[in-house]
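pipeline stage [seq->struct] | target=DUF3576 domain-containing protein | organism=Antarcticimicrobium luteum | residues=170
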Amino acid sequence: MTFLKNPTKIVLILALCLAAASCSRVRGLGKVQVGGETTAGGNIAHNPDSAPTNYERSSIWDLFGPNKGDTRVQVNRYLWSASLDVLSFLPVQSVDPFTGVIVTGYGTPPGGGRAYRATVHISDPALDARSLKVALQTQGGRPVAAGTARAVEDAILTRARQLRVRDKRL
């Protein structure tokens, strides 16, 4: 145990342990129910000025403890279904409902001559335009015009609203 006889190494180890223990932050984990929709982190889609209400202290030591994280899917189901409906002419390569990413292969739209591929990212459980990002590229690898991507986003949002209205009637 010659290692413990060296006071410089002991002080260094203690300093590193204290530095690691002090690396903590406060994060909002609150879920807020608003009009039938739950938003993550306490951010209310209708009131952006609101702050998270539930806080939990976390640190590096939480990595070694039991997982207390929320495992619910944080993707708007209407945007998810609408994205698959609108882009149904494209072959789906991969989907990840937990991160909200849909990646398609190349396909030609009905009545079109140019092949496209799409990547859709749904980042929030709110049915909101800010929750949806669509990236389109041509077979040559170039991105399409911003107006084309916006038109696809609008079509997805319109279809998502239609699906939501249909569900409310049932």
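stage status: PASS
auto-comment: The chain is about 30% helix and 25% strand. Residues 146-169 form the longest helix (24 residues).
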